[in-house]
Design a protein that fits this description.
mainly alpha
């Protein structure tokens, strides 16, 4: 099952071989946080995708600031 619409977009990017840059990574990570109600409706795939998005070095600070605002 898909927990967030951003997961579908992530898989589409992977399927066509398109690189996920920092901006797209930020948007997808934000969408995952939002769609899963801050991970309350997340599954292991959601966390796996999020961890890959989180691996972008500058995402840590941007995503951390999102949590502080929620």
């Amino acid at each position: 099952p898909i927990s967030a619409t951003a997961e579908i977009v992530y898989f589409l990017y992977k399927e066509i071989g398109e690189k996920i840059d920092e901006e797209i990574g930020n948007l997808l990570a934000s969408a995952i946080i939002s769609d899963t109600a801050r991970f309350k409706r997340a599954d292991k795939w959601t966390f796996s995708i999020f961890s890959e998005l989180f691996s972008y070095s500058s995402l840590y600070f941007k995503i951390s600031s999102l949590f502080k605002k929620l």
